[in-house]
Amino acid sequence: MKLPENMSKIVGKNYKGQKDDEGRPHGHGTMEYLTSGDKKYKYEGHFEHGVRSGYGVWHETIRFIREYEPWEWAQMGDYDSAGRLIRPNTKPGPYREVIDSWDEKFRGWWKNDDAVHSLKHKKYANWQSVHLEDEKVLSDLLDFKAVRMLPQPMVMNSDNPYARYAYGVWLWTCYKDSESLKTAFKIFEEVAGKGIADALQMMSRMYFIGEAYDEKAGKFVMDRKLSQELTAQAMEKGSILARLRYNKDLFFGTTELVADTETAIAEAQRESSAIFSESILWTEQLGLFYEIEGEREKAIKAYEKCIINGYYAPIYDLALMYLEDGDEGYYQTLMKVGMDLGVPDCRILGIENEYRWESLSGDERLDIYRQMKRNLTEGIALGSGVCAYTLADALLNGKFGYDMDLRMGREYADIALTYGYTAAANLVIEAAEALDDPEFISDDELLKLRYDALRYGIEEQLDYVIRNKDTYIEMGYGDEIEKVWMPLWKKNHPEAKTQISPSVIIIQPSGVATVVEADVFCMSYREMSQLIDAEGLDAVHFSGPLNRITEACRFRGYQIAMYADRNGYAKDLADNAIGTILYGAGAEIRGAVIIVLEDNKYDTHSFHFQEDIESVLSEISIITGNLLRMD
């Protein structure tokens, strides 16, 4: 957009909105411009240190003539309190009036004070007319949210390899039942042989997360080595999907790659500067890299470049960046723009009120609830994992005005997982741990979900799976555990610990320590009390000595805790000198004590490795001045 020439004749400005430390417009605001001519101008949008930058709307005044009918004009004048005309200000005959009004001239993005590109609504209502006859479909299908909008008859009744590929992606993104996965994998095998490189990368993904079906074995299998080989083949044949995934893995150091952020950023910079349509996806990745590295201004520029060029998904990421900076007004503006442009993830607008929900009035809460209920439902229909996760969280925890509904919460969490939002697995696991209700999720279902969460990339489940390795081997995951998870676990535990049956340390008042087999994670407090002939237990968390032991033993995600007989004084049990030292302050500890591990939710765990027990005993001996003796 070329600004009017008489903008140079500005004689005054009137600004309302956010400002920086020097008083310049910075953030969301409105600037009205007064000129020496008859025209007036107004910009509503975002500023960066006094300069129009970001999303904004430009108006100018227009003048038009309003003609009044004789009867209408004759009614104008002063009226009394009863509504009677007492002093007309008209003369007989027609009347014409000149009126100034704001006229919108531009709506879109601004860079360096110039309008760059007007926004064009990009929706998927016209997919029916798309012809899947050439390679254009590949770039369209890179955005899996678009694939979910494809009508099923359009892609399933065609022999064209591109249409077949679209159908495979449609099955993979819309359905996760076993038959759909089998069909999708067969389609990818078929069209990969016809030159569609991205199909090789889809096969790689399915092998990577255990969704590839092995006809000979009669089960779904995970094969990370084969996944890497397929990715290499896909990259060699020009798959944009494979190259994007490889570069992202290189940035984060995932799979078998050692993290090399500089090389990954350099590759994204080079590819994002190309003139091909796929370069915009590299620009989006580059924005993500910059954001993680703390390069805020560069991230904003990358995301805005995507938006200006008609790829609107990064509007959501851009909005969240401004929300994190405290600019809630611009966040809301961007989220509303995203909703208008069909960005599903922008439909979580209202979630920013979570941190102040308790302070809101009843009417404000009701408004947010109604807004979120409508937007989240529409976002899920458009294929948004973020929306499905947000709704699942609200239902599982009774947030944002939603009543707690465990069944529906689980259903929406499953939808989020289907849409690739893997954090939803943790959401269900956390709910299951808090509720401890088999009607919400059975023990077998929870075991399977923990394993699936690990497959999805939530590696915090790795220790749990290894601790329960025998159970998972019985469930049929033995090959995966030996070939994939055990090597990864050993990589994270270079000391190569020796696995033992779940055990705890019990220290008697005499100072004698014994190692007793017991899986306290699966025990009630009553059962755990019986280990030291107690009727109840008191826990000691985070005392100075216990903290030093935790730090010295370098436990990942766990700390040392101690449990003692709750009625030690009433029963007149003997003083436990070691327990008292580990307590660190207060009265002495009486009777036997139990030494265990705890996670950050205070769930109690046994020791599963011989080296852990040995290191804890060694540190206790050091802290207590060699009072400890082994049975």
Structure explained in plain terms:
Helices cover about 45% and strands about 20% of the residues. It is built from 25 helices and 18 strands. A hairpin with a 5-residue loop joins strand 5 (about 75-80) and strand 6 (about 85-90). The strands form four sheets. Strands 11, 12, 13, 14, 15, 16, 17 and 18 form an eight-stranded mixed sheet that branches. A six-stranded antiparallel sheet has the order 1-2-3-4-7-8. The protein has a two-stranded antiparallel sheet with strand order 5-6. The longest helix has 24 residues, at about 470-490. The model is unreliable at about 120-135 (pLDDT under 50). With about 625 residues, it is an alpha+beta fold.
Topology:
Layout: E1 10-19, E2 25-35, E3 40-48, E4 51-68, H1 70-73, E5 77-79, E6 85-88, E7 95-111, E8 114-118, H2 136-140, H3 144-147, H4 152-156, H5 161-174, H6 178-192, H7 197-208, E9 212-214, E10 219-221, H8 224-236, H9 240-252, H10 261-272, H11 279-292, H12 296-308, H13 314-324, H14 328-340, H15 362-381, H16 385-397, H17 406-418, H18 423-435, H19 443-455, H20 462-467, H21 469-492, E11 499-507, E12 512-517, H22 525-529, E13 537-540, H23 544-553, E14 559-565, H24 577-583, E15 593-598, E16 604-605, E17 607-609, H25 610-623, E18 629-630
Parallel strand pairs: 12-18
Antiparallel strand pairs: 1-2, 2-3, 3-4, 4-7, 5-6, 7-8, 9-10, 11-12, 11-15, 11-17, 13-14, 14-15, 15-16
Helix pairs in contact: 5-6, 6-7, 7-8, 8-9, 9-10, 10-11, 11-12, 12-13, 13-14, 15-16, 16-17, 16-18, 17-18, 18-19, 23-25
